[in-house]
Specification:
By secondary structure, the chain is mostly helical. It is built from 9 helices and no strands. It is found in: Cell membrane.
C-alpha cells in the first residue's frame, strides 16, 4: 500500500472539507446538478477520446497508484546475484524452483530453465516490457485527460448557470444564490482535477518509470546469467541501475569485504 498517495489525497480532501465546514452554510457547496455536469461530462469526453480497451486498462492500472510497491533495486540486485550463483553452481534448470512474486521474472526464469535461445529470451522480455509500458501509460493518459477536461466542464457548467441567472433578473435577491450555484461547477471541476485526477496520473507515470527500470534490470540479469557470466560481473552490470550514491556505498562495502577476507592472521 502506497501511504504517500493515500495521505496526500485524503489530507487534501480533509483540508477542503474543514475549510467548507468553517463557513456559515456548508450545504451551499452541495449541488447535485453541478456534480452531474462535471462528473458526467468529464467521463463522456474522456470516453470519446479513448477506446473501451484503454478504459478497461485504465481501471486496472489505477490500483497501482495506491497498492503497488515495487521491490527495492538494491534488494533486487541481491536476489539476481543469488540466482546467478545458483545457475552457476547447479545449472539453469535449477532456476525453475526459484520463487518470486513477479510474473515477469518468473517467465524469464522459466524460459532460462527451458533452454530458450538468447535471441528468443530477449525478444519475449522486450515485448513483455513494452506491453506493460503501454498498459501503464493508458491508465496515466486517462487520468491526465480527466484532469484536463474536468475544469473545462466546470467552466461550461458555470456559464450555463450564469446564462440561467441573467435570464431571470426580475428578483435581485436571487442573484447572489444563483451566482454561488453557478460557481460550484468550476469548484467541482478544479477539485476533481487537482485532488484526484492529476495526482493519480502523475503517480501512474512514476510507477511506469519505476516498473520499466525494474524489468530492464531483470532482463539484463537474466541474459547475463544465460551467458554464464561470473556473478561478480553480473553485479557490476546491474549496479548501473542504482543512483551514484548507493552504487558508491555498495562498491565500498564490497571492497572492504574483499580486503577483510584477504587479510590473514600473523603466525606466532
Amino acid at each position: 500500500m502506497d501511504l504517500a498517495t493515500i495521505i496526500g489525497m485524503v489530507g487534501a480532501i480533509i483540508l477542503v472539507v474543514i475549510a467548507i465546514s468553517l463557513g456559515a452554510s456548508p450545504m451551499v457547496f452541495v449541488n447535485p446538478i453541478s456534480l452531474i455536469i462535471v462528473v458526467g461530462g468529464t467521463s463522456m469526453i474522456v470516453l470519446s477520446q479513448m477506446t473501451f480497451s484503454e478504459v478497461r486498462l485504465a481501471a486496472k492500472a489505477v490500483v497501482k497508484a495506491f497498492k503497488m510497491n515495487l521491490p527495492d533495486l538494491s534488494a533486487t540486485i541481491e536476489e539476481m546475484l543469488e540466482v546467478a550463483k545458483t545457475a552457476r553452481k547447479n545449472g539453469l534448470l535449477a532456476l525453475e524452483d526459484h520463487e518470486t512474486s513477479s510474473a515477469y521474472l518468473a517467465q524469464g526464469l522459466q524460459m532460462l530453465a527451458d533452454g530458450y535461445s538468447p535471441e528468443m529470451l530477449k525478444d519475449v522480455l522486450d515485448k513483455e516490457r513494452l506491453m506493460t509500458l503501454e498498459r501503464n501509460r493508458a491508465g496515466a493518459r486517462a487520468f491526465q485527460l480527466m484532469g484536463d477536461v474536468a475544469p473545462a466542464m466546470g467552466m461550461i457548467g458555470t456559464l450555463i448557470g450564469l446564462v440561467d441567472m441573467l435570464s431571470n433578473m426580475d428578483d435581485p435577491s436571487s442573484i447572489g444564490p444563483a451566482m454561488a450555484v453557478a460557481l460550484l461547477t468550476t469548484l467541482y471541476g478544479v477539485l476533481i482535477a487537482q485532488i484526484i485526477a492529476h495526482p493519480i496520473a502523475e503517480k501512474l507515470e512514476l510507477r511506469t518509470v519505476e516498473e520499466e527500470r525494474l524489468q530492464a534490470l531483470w532482463a539484463d540479469a537474466l541474459l547475463a546469467i544465460q551467458q554464464g557470466l561470473n556473478p561478480r560481473v553480473v553485479e557490476q552490470m546491474l549496479l548501473t541501475y542504482l543512483p551514484k550514491e548507493q552504487r558508491d556505498k555498495r562498491e565500498a562495502a564490497n571492497n572492504e569485504a574483499a580486503g577483510g577476507g584477504a587479510e590473514q592472521p600473523e603466525m606466532p
